[in-house]
């Protein structure tokens, strides 16, 4: 169960407190002075003093020494206390569960993996997931649990829709079921949105996995995260914030039809990018799968004018170079046809096999720092 700091952290989600917390987090162990906090946030020194006093009382901030001043007495430097709070990130894939425990910086301090049968239904999956989460929680203060899994779903209500291949999940209230079982706050989102959030929050800073440096002039970064594992989906970050759409429907990338007479997909359509990619992989033709994925990526680039395409998922991980080259080649061809100097860059997403789980933890952590959300 959540300790005092974990409970009180949820009450700290004010705009000004988020600004201060984010700067403390970004400063790392070296810390930052109250004067610098006031200068960077635009808050008055009195307001900063009040906020930092509260953070220190809650155990979230501590002194990191003193720094020489240009005049007067040395300034006290403050730092974030990473271990003052934690969040669990839970990735429910179709056949595997990954759970991570992250501190306030997003760094993983514990991890668990277990087989999972998503087809076993909601009650069985909730019970198995709860057991893995409880195994991570010995003696730590926890904000809650972020859960990421294949969509479609309703992010706001935490209710699943008809997950491709698993119609029995349609209408299942996953958030409330898991929250009731654990006695903790739970947030639910699509796996692709969670992974994209994790990348957006990292922002090139040292916290968590290797970060994403937003391209110059991108307004915080606009990119697509394409996840090809047991299925295919996209997470979209526009101007630094995850774009979910009014009904969490954005990013259903895998079920755009690009071959009208193509093979039947689990969603009921023919010629979806997902079925074409996975069929090619099963036939031992990853180069073909990469070209198909590139065609879909080119559609996204044309629609959204994004800065970057990131690739993730276990199928990509099995042939990273092939997918980066193949998708990149399609985007370069598109750029040449349009007379653009260079195609949109393509890279492997940071985070590796646990990138989705780390992003799921950020569903709880990021709002505390005013990061990654619209």
Describe the structure in your own words.
The protein is an alpha/beta fold and 374 residues long. Helix content is 37%, strand content 21%. It has helices at residues 4-9, 15-27, 34-41, 45-57, 122-136, 174-182, 191-202, 273-282, 286-304, 314-317, 320-338, 355-365, and strands at 32-33, 61-67, 75-80, 86-92, 96-103, 108-115, 142-149, 153-154, 159-160, 186-190, 223-228, 232-238, 241-242, 308-312, 346-348. The strands form four sheets. The protein has a five-stranded mixed sheet with strand order 6-5-4-7-10. A five-stranded mixed sheet has the order 13-12-11-14-15, with helices on both faces. Strand 11 and strand 12 (232-238) form a beta hairpin. Helix 3 (34-41) crosses helix 4 (45-57), helix 7 crosses helix 12 and helix 9 packs across helix 11. It is globular and about 75 Å long.
| SSE order | HHEHHEEEEEHEEEHEHEEEHHEHHEH
Approximate helicity band: 25-40%
What's the shape? globular
Largest sheet report: 5 strands, mixed
In oligomeric terms, what are we looking at? single chain
Low-confidence stretches: 1-7, 204-219
Strand content: 15-25%
Distance between the termini: 30 Å
Mean pLDDT: 88
Structural class: alpha/beta
Number of strands: 15
Global Rg: 22 Å
